[in-house]
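ok trying this again, last paste got cut off
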Amino acid sequence: MQSVAMTGAFAVANNRVSAFATDASKTDAVRINIRPHEDAGPLPHAWEECVGSDRAIVGLREQWLSDLDRVKREIGFKSVRFHGLFNDEMGVWPSGAKQPNFLYVDMVFDAMLERGVRPFVELSFMPGELASGRTTAFFYKGNTSPPNHLADWAGLIRAFGEHCVARYGIKEVENWAFEVWNEPNLKFFWAGTQSDYFELYRHTAMTLKSVDNRLRVGGPSTAIAAWVGDLLEFCAKEKVPIDFASTHIYPDDTQNLVFGKDEHYAFEEVIPRALEKVKGQIKASQYPLLPLYITEWSSQNPAFIAHTVKSTIGLADILSYWTFDNVFEELGIPRTFLNKNFGLIGLRGVPRTSFHTFALLHQLGDVRLETDVGPVLATRRKDGSLAVLLWNLIPQDPKQRTSMGDPLVQTGGTFAIQGEPEKFTLQVQGDHRRGRINISRVDNEHGDFNHAYQKMGSPVYPTAQQIAELKRASALPQPEVVYLDGSGQITISIPPNGIALLTLGAPRT
C-alpha cells in the first residue's frame, strides 16, 4: 500500500486521519528539497501542443470525437496529427476525377476546430490516381508510392492549400503545421529514395508558400531521428523553405541506427539523447533557431512518461504522443477489448493509466522551481500555488523490446509493475511550509482498470454495464488531503512505475 507521512505535521483526508499515514522516522527515504522562491526556468507544455491519432477517416466516428472532447477538456491538447489525409477512402481524388474533392477533409477538420483542436496536417498518403505504383501500407492500404508526376502532386497541394485558406481564413491556417509525409526513411512508408522524398518536399514546400508565404511547412517526419541534417542541408543548398524540423523516436528503436554502433544508452535515455543529437544538427545547420517537433513517441508507463517530459525540457517545441485513443486500425480491426494498441484511452472510452498521467501533467505550472536532483518536477502556477510531480521509474532491461517503434507490430508498450516502492521525503522551503496538500496518484491501484477487468472474467465482449463498471474502476479517486503544520516536510511512498502529484495552495499574505 502507498503511504503518506508527516514529520512535525498532522494528516487529514476527507475529515479523517489519512489511511496512508505511516512511520516517518525511517531513514531510507530519498530526500528532496524544494525551493519555491528559486526559479529554474520556464516549463513549456510541449507535450500538449499536439497528439497523434490513427488516420483521417476515423475522425468521422462518434467514439473518436467523444475521446477527442475528453482529451481536450482534461489534458489540453491543442492539435491532432494523423496519417492518410489523402487516402482513397477520404475521396480526395476519386477515380477519373479532374480535380480534388475535400468534402470528407472538411468534415474532419470542422469537427476538430469546433472542439478547439487544430489539425497538425500530415500530407500523406498518395491518392491512387496520382501514384506511380501500388505499394501500400497497413490494413487500410495507404499508397506509399511517389507521385507519377510531381506536377500533379503539386496541383493537389495547391488546391488543398487554397481550399484551407478560403474555408478557414489565413489567420487560422497560418497557425497550422504542414508536415510532408510520414517516415519516408522506412521502405514500409515510402517506396522511393531519399532523393525522391527531397523532391517531394521541394514541390510541396514551394507550392504551399506560393499559396501564402505564411503557411508553415516542414519535415522530414522520419523514424529513428534520421535525415534531419540531410534535409536542412538540401533546403539550404537548393533554397527550399522550411519552417520546422520533425522526426520520431521511440525508446526501443535500434540504437545502432539512431546513434551509431559505438553509442548505446539505457532504455529510459534513448528519447532525450536522440533529441540532443537532432538539436545539435539543427544548431550546426543554416537554420540554428529552427523549431524541432517530435511528432511520435509513446509509452504506457506513467513514470516513463514523466521522466521523458522532464528530460526533454528545452529540446523540442512539440512532443506529440502517439496516440490519444484506441480507435486505431493500422494492423486491422482490434481483436480484443483489452489490447496493447496505442492510445491514452482504450476501447469504448475506457481511460488508461497513461491518460491519467497526462491529466496530472496538465496541472503543472509553467515555471520550474529549483529542487535537489531526483525524479521530481516542481512548478509554480499562475495563481502562486505549487504543483510537484514525483515518480518511481524502474529501469527496463535494454534487451526487452516493447515494439513501440516497429510499424509492423505497433503496440503502445507495457506498464510493468515489477520492482520496489520508493519512499521520498520532500522538504518544502519558504512560505509554503504550512497549509493543505492534495495528493493524486497514478499506478496499478489508482486509475488502472485491469483488476476490475480480470475480476469480471476478462470478457471478450463486455456488456454496456461492464464497460460502465470499467470506466468507474479506472477513474482516479479524490485526492488524498494532508496538512503541513509549518515544518514543510512530507514523506510519501510511490509504487513501481507510479507517479504522484502534490499540489500546495498559494501562501496566505
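PB: full thing came through this time. The chain has twelve helices and 20 strands.
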